[in-house]
What does this fold into?
Amino acid sequence: MDFLQNYCWIVFLFFCSVSSLSVKETKPVIFFLGIVKNEGTNTFSRNKIKKLPVASDANDLISKLDLDGKKQYITYIYHSSICSYCSKVTDAIKDNNNVEILQFHENSKLEDLTYTNKPIIVLMKNINREDSIDRSIFYNELNKKGGKIQVPALEFNDHIMYESSEIINFYQHLLEKIEANNDSSNEPETQ
It folds into this structure.
């Protein structure tokens, strides 16, 4: 009787394992044992991306951040190659000498891209692969961090902000701050 009972358990576990492999889900093979629970709730989680607070507008984002004393601001813009509002944001900042706009690809390393002396670095994360409508890894990343898919989206210091006009206002604030710092450092000392 014990042999038959053990044999039934082995067959059951085998079929559960095979069925979980054939289903197109990201559940681990042993999910039915209860060892691995919902992603993000325990140490077995493969997904370490957390939802970020969403700023309602540029003033809200600026009020939540400490922008003083920084020499360089690294920002991320989630965009789509077929989005006209995304182009509006990049067109507003691309000709400024204080801004470096770089494409951040799926296999890019932050250390390789941020080797510049410009005060504002904008790393562009395309939610589409190349110029197609196929999704890149940044599509899911934006969905998990921001809670929705909407481009353009600005990520800065663990905050997300949507709306192209508000993103432009935020960059204008940063540029004004940088120019004010440059003007104060270029003033001659008086005695």
